[in-house]
Automatic annotation (TrEMBL):
GO biological process terms held by the UniProt record: bile acid metabolic process
Organism: Paenibacillus rhizosphaerae
Family that this chain belongs to: Belongs to the short-chain dehydrogenases/reductases (SDR) family.
Protein name from the UniProt record: NAD(P)-dependent dehydrogenase (Short-subunit alcohol dehydrogenase family)
Record bears the keyword Oxidoreductase: yes
Amino acid sequence: MRLQGKVAIITGAANGMGAAEAKLFAKEGAKVVATDLNGEKLNEMVAEITANGGEAVALRQNVTSEEEWKAIVAKTVELYGKVDVLVNNAGVASPKTMADMDMDEWNKVMDINLNGCVLGMKYCIPEMKKAGGGSVINISSIGGIVGMAGSSPYTAAKGALRALSKSAAVEYGKDRIRVNSVHPGIIVTPMTAPSMASAMPYYEAHTQLPYMGEPEDVAYGVVFLASDESRFMTGAELVIDGGWTAL
Ligand SMILES: NC(=O)c1ccc[n+]([C@@H]2O[C@H](COP(=O)([O-])OP(=O)(O)OC[C@H]3O[C@@H](n4cnc5c(N)ncnc54)[C@H](O)[C@@H]3O)[C@@H](O)[C@H]2O)c1
């Protein structure tokens, strides 16, 4: 029960890493507000948590909508009285090179992968201040640290999220609000599934361990950052990449 009594909002929780985080958070005693664009899949995920005795609620949300962020935070406070943890996990892939990409694609990726996280922080941080502290976990990527060909808008958004996490950590440290970024390598989820066959030689060449990551490999790190075990960590980067960035 490493998260007993904590109230956590997790975005993009219907699938992949967000779903694994929501399940592990509930198992560790958190009250989970799970949000996603895909309401149907989200309801199934939350039903699984509650069937196993966990505490969770499913709220449909588009993270790019400021109005919806206000409503999600208000509903969380109405249901559970506070916000302790925000996991900005929702994101989309964008296999585009600079010359291929059009500005609509660029804006879409920035809107979801960066602006959605900005809005989450903007509306959760005041509640964390009221609660006397909190933990924000921004799910970036190895693409926020090193270059990746054919992922320009994605890596730009993830790199900005990495830098933004550090600035927010500096701005809110004295309020006991910690802000860290997480940098997964290749994790087997619905996001990477379409590329698994064709890109496997590339993935294997960069991943130093002889296997790819599972959503739970990242979820354990996110639980640590949400818990008081990481109370002296802020503005840090938790890299969970099977050695991709070690080279
Ligand atoms: N899978 C990987 O290898 C990998 C590696 C590094 C970083 N990441 C990052 O980890 C996070 C989770 O990725 P995943 O692989 O679990 O992806 P996924 O596609 O399995 O899940 C992402 C979820 O986000 C939701 N979502 C998308 N747009 C949304 C929006 N506008 N509003 C609300 N929800 C929205 C989707 O419905 C989906 O349920 C993402 O931010 C991703 O960029 C993934």
